[in-house]
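TASK: fixed-backbone design
INPUT:
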């Protein structure tokens, strides 16, 4: 074999070994990510958080210092923006979140939480805070129906739920008019038979980017 051929073969072998190592390393990283889900990563972080006493600056009790409850949307844009824009720190208010910041019936879980906040935790004022460009706007069961079927839920299961008295069209219905949705939720809270007449309830829409509040005439 000539020197050129020998050198060429050795270089190819070197590159092959290098590439094989890179591929194995990449597969290791991918398998590591697959093995450790996001929840696993959060659990690992939590152990460090507790060990370093990161909780100390958040210590408070269960009673809201401002005697305030905020019903808002679960949108990720509001996770930090909402309390920052309202000037709320840990312990100031009870913040209740769901898809759209809605009370869809007089005895749903959002209304239950507000009743508990009033009678057990001393809440005197309630803010209903919807937001701009909300994903619940124009939400409908017909959209979810296709997604559910694609993920393995059968039409038979959906039919059984409907026959049990659950109106999925109502349960998964969003809204088409954000201000009107806020007015409806505020009215449901104000007129609820278990809400005392001295409880202040006001409605707002927060800008999802700037945090600016617009009060809705309810």
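OUTPUT:
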């Amino acid at each position: 074999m000539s020197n050129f051929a020998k050198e060429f073969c050795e270089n190819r072998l070197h590159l092959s070994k290098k590439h094989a190592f890179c591929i194995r390393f990449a597969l290791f990283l991918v398998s590591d990510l697959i093995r450790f889900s996001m929840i696993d990563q959060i659990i690992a972080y939590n152990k460090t958080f507790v060990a370093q006493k990161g909780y100390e600056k958040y210590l408070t009790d269960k009673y809201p210092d401002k005697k305030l409850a905020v019903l808002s949307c679960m949108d990720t844009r509001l996770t930090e923006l909402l309390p920052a824009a309202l000037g709320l720190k840990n312990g100031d208010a009870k913040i209740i979140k769901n898809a759209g910041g809605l009370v869809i019936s007089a005895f749903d879980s959002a209304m239950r939480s507000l009743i508990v906040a009033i009678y057990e935790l001393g809440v005197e004022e309630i803010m209903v805070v919807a937001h701009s460009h909300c994903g619940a706007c124009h939400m409908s069961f017909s959209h979810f129906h296709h997604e559910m079927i694609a993920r393995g839920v059968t039409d038979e299961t959906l039919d059984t739920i409907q026959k049990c008295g659950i109106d999925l069209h109502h349960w998964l219905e969003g809204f088409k008019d954000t201000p009107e949705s806020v007015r409806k939720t505020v009215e449901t809270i104000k007129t609820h038979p278990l809400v005392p007449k001295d409880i202040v309830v006001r409605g707002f829409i927060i800008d999802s980017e700037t945090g600016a509040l617009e009060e809705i005439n309810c």
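COMMENT: The radius of gyration is 27 Å.
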